[in-house]
Design a protein that fits this description.
It comes from Rhizobium loti (Mesorhizobium loti). Belongs to the binding-protein-dependent transport system permease family. Its main location: membrane. The chain contains 28 helices and no strands. The protein is mainly α. It has helices at 2-10, 20-33, 41-44, 49-62, 64-76, 78-85, 88-121, 127-135, 142-152, 159-184, 187-195, 200-211, 213-229, 232-236, 242-253, 257-281, 306-335, 342-376, 380-394, 397-410, 419-429, 431-443, 447-455, 460-471, 473-489, 492-497, 505-514, 518-546.
Length: 549
């Protein structure tokens, strides 16, 4: 990545008196002068005050739903809280949720790493086509996956059904960062290990896999948070998790304490995931200044493993893409022209596009300060603030929505059911998606370029804009695409917070599928997939550009 990133920087004029070439020369001069460019722990932990203030503001805003749960618990009283939490039903939900995450995440890691290695590092036939097909399942909402599988296999229910559909629906979230990391690795490191006598498998385990740690940790955390917060997927297959139970409780009692206490247990599960991710990720540096290797990694010959490798990709594609497309096509054919109500579809399409674009932009801007601090100035405060941003990602949309409903009704009534409120909800819900993408991208942008820009007299904001923000633009675009995908598929928060008259594609699909009118729901599922495909293509292209390809 770095030869391409530095070369592109040299072509971009900078504001003020300097140019990109001046910036690079300044970096060289600083290195020769012996100044600490990245080795000093104290220098590495400094962060501009305005970035810290912005990150704290976003983190406090992200804590609003959690504060809402705590406030309800305090009002409810300890005796009632303990009676609601320590009961057999909560134990059943906890076992279901833990088993779901414990089984789905490792399977997703193994599958994603295997697919990424095959498409990026082997001589697999039609590797580019298979790489795109591994990203394409992102275009299909998770509840559409479940809708398709229930149509195809009506008796598909329970834990293993949840694991199957979860892995199929969410493995691209891990495949994308892992494949991008594989493309950016310096092949000289693997050549050196091979020259020391290590075989291909030992080179992979000792050299390649450790360098994929940041991508695997970030992607796994994202998948785990989605599993904790997912609702529609598990309703179709009739598998009870904390989220489905919370929604059922809220629908029956609206703002009952039982649902809030279940949400509190769900937050505790999020803390466990955050702790594991922090423990495994560590604080190693993943960027360096230098030309690296001016060549691509030589692809490994599969030999006799070519047929089994192709079989793995074919089966994955059929399960992740074939089943949904066949099911949707079958329902469209069964419904005929009558299911295409173009007046309803046109309104839902326009509203969905607007909300997705506006929410994605807001979430990406909100995630930028925290992403920069996470990489450039790690420390106890950073860990705390970053954890606050991830907590909200583990909460189901209905909890976030009810928290904002309560606040707007009691404190800021003019904001109730307005565009502002629903966009804030989207930014909070999908902040982890933008944060993970930005964090991985900023980690690959050398901090020395920012310091060199500052040495040329740039103010902190201009130095940040001229270097890191420009180099991390592909990651920002990928994060926006991920957030937009999530907003287009979001249901519960949209139903509660959207202004009167709002009807998105997901809301229309859920309305018809809830009435068991699968034929009328099929056009909305088809349009959601068709809208999401360009965004998944953008994710694929940007991941290639991050590697200079």
């Amino acid at each position: 990545m770095f030869p391409t990133a530095i070369a592109s920087l040299q072509l971009l004029p900078l504001d003020g008196n300097g140019t990109a070439s001046d910036l690079m020369q300044s970096a060289v001069d600083l290195a020769r002068s012996g100044l600490p460019l990245g080795t000093g722990r104290r220098a590495r932990r400094r962060a501009p005050l305005w970035l810290v203030v912005a990150a704290i503001f976003v983190a406090l805003l992200a804590l609003v739903p959690l504060a809402f749960i705590i406030w309800i618990a305090v009002q409810t009283g300890w005796e009632t809280v303990s009676a609601l939490v320590f009961r057999p039903r909560v134990g059943e939900l906890l076992v279901n949720t833990v088993l779901l995450v414990a089984l789905s995440v490792p399977i997703t890691i193994v599958l994603s790493v295997a697919l990424a290695w095959l498409t990026e590092r082997s001589d697999l036939p039609a590797a580019r086509l298979w790489a795109w097909l591994c990203v394409a399942p992102l275009a299909i909402p998770a509840f559409v996956h479940s809708y398709a599988w229930i149509t195809m296999v009506p008796g598909l229910h329970g834990l293993w059904a949840g694991v199957l559909v979860s892995v199929i629906a969410y493995f691209p979230f891990l495949y994308l960062p892992v494949s991008a990391a594989l493309r950016r690795l310096d092949p000289a490191l693997e050549d050196a290990a091979a020259a020391l006598g290590l075989g291909p498998w030992r080179v992979f385990w000792r050299v390649v896999l450790p360098q994929l740690r940041l991508a695997i940790c970030g992607g796994s955390l994202l998948v785990g948070l989605h599993l904790l917060a997912e609702y529609g997927l598990y309703v179709f297959i009739r598998f009870d998790t904390f989220t489905t139970a919370i929604v059922d409780q809220f629908q029956s009692t609206f703002n009952g304490p039982a649902a809030n206490m279940l949400a509190g247990v769900l937050v505790s599960c999020c803390f466990v995931l955050l702790g594991l991710e922090v423990l495994v990720r560590g604080e190693e540096r993943y960027a360096r200044v230098g030309s690296g290797a001016a060549r691509y990694q030589q692809r490994t010959s599969l030999g006799r493993a070519t047929i089994p490798s192709l079989l793995l990709l074919v089966i994955t594609t059929l399960l992740a893409l074939g089943v949904p497309f066949v099911t949707i096509g079958g329902w469209l054919a069964a419904g005929g022209a009558d299911v295409w109500r173009f007046d309803e579809i046109g309104l839902a399409l326009g509203q969905t596009l607007f909300l997705a674009l506006a929410g994605a932009l807001l979430a990406t801007v909100a995630a930028m300060p925290m992403a920069w601090i996470s990489i450039r100035a790690p420390g106890p405060l950073q860990r705390l603030l970053e954890g606050c941003n991830y907590i909200v990602g583990s909460l189901p949309g209905v909890v976030i929505a009810l928290a904002l409903v309560t606040i707007t009704v009691r404190i800021a009534l003019p904001l109730y059911q307005t565009l502002f409120t629903i966009l804030v909800a989207y930014a909070l819900m999908f902040l982890p998606r933008a944060l993970v993408s930005l964090r991985a991208s900023i980690a690959q942008a050398p901090v020395e370029l920012e310091r060199a820009a500052s040495s040329l007299g740039r103010p902190p904001l201009q130095a940040l804009w001229s270097t890191t923000i420009r180099l991390s633009a592909p990651g920002a675009a990928a994060g926006m695409a991920l957030v937009a995908l999530g907003i287009m598929n979001e249901l519960t928060a949209t139903q509660m917070l959207a202004p009167n008259g709002t009807r998105t594609l997901a809301m229309a699909f859920w309305s018809y599928s809830g009435e068991i009118d699968y034929a009328s729901a099929a056009p909305y599922a088809f349009i959601m997939v068709a809208m999401s495909l360009p965004l998944t293509w953008l994710l694929y292209v940007q991941s290639k550009r991050m590697a200079g390809r």
